[in-house]
Amino acid sequence: MEHGGVLSYKKKDEVLIDFSSNINPLMAPKGLKKALSASFNNLLVYPDIRYRSLKKVTAQYLKCGPENIVLGNGAVEIIDNFCSMFKRVVLCTPCFSEYGLRALVHNKPVLELPYLPDFLPDIAGLEKKLRAGDLLILGNPNNPTGLRIEKTALLQIYSLVQKTGIFLLLDEAFYEFCPPDYDSIALFKKDGYKNICIIRAATKFFGLPGIRLGYACTSTDTAAALSKIEMAWHINAFAEAAAPAIFFDEDFIAKSKAYIQKERVFLLENIEKYGTSGEIKLQAYKSQCNFILLKVLNAKDTDALKFFEKKGILIRTCSSFKTLGDNHIRIAVRSHKDNCKFINAISSKRSK
After folding, report:
1. Tens digit of pLDDT for each residue in 201-259?
2. pTM of the model
3. Mind listing the domains of the chain with CATH numbers?
4. Which cofactors does the annotated protein need, by name (predicted)?
5. Helix and strand totals (H; E) in the chain
6. Which of 245, 247, 287 is nearest to 265 (CA)?
């Protein structure tokens, strides 16, 4: 399984509860349908090729300047464009598979450095291996581990960026799900985002994988360089109409953050309590976002996949993530009802 998210996946006539896809269980903001309906006539004309209004709205949400905004047909398009611009791509593994795949599409060499055993970046190892012209891509939080880079560690990495003459691409697609410890966009504003780009997206937190709207904040020079290789009209009219409807729905944003925090704690506590009591024995790693990495203690990930399918649940096997092996799975934080079903599946005890 290369990616999660198979909504139509069925076991005979039963649709499985999809724990493989890390989408906000509260789905999209309520006002979105009205905004999209009102924008129908925009489908009949070309979008503004410079996306001035969309960049202004996105800049207001991210609290940076419109001149710092980069847009993409999903975050992956932005990642792809960056991979095309640098000599070599450096990754810390395990990580999102598209980083390496996009580099290979552009015939770029890829250097992979494993995370430390606690899934924190090996800063000493990076310092030894990085060289001018490299693009270092880090998930923050990282997929599939669910961990944020600590602020002090991120500042150390950024110091390496400046020292070695490389570029840091921070993939923060899951940022809004995390505790409010720091905001990378605010953190690097004083530096003018020199040699750094912070990517976010509407896909996960706003529950809109079909809209394909990625956005990022970087220096004006980097934004200008990217504009020269971007495809014309790469953002569709519905994505442009969705932005103001989702970015300024403060009630939805607050409720989503609180809900994920509560349900993440519920899952972690109950997996710790019941994870080794059932047929499939699981150990949860710490997580700071809307998914949890689990180690399967007594079987392979494919065995766990079959076990949960019988329980009406689809999980994400993780053998495709380099360095994890064949004994890890990943689950999303879903609705409380669904989360209870997962806990019940691993234990004879009922969760409420």
Report:
1. 999 999 999 999 999 999 999 999 999 999 999 999 999 999 999 999 999 999 999 99
2. 0.94
3. 17-27+251-346 (3.90.1150.10), 38-248 (3.40.640.10)
4. pyridoxal 5'-phosphate
5. 12, 15
6. 287
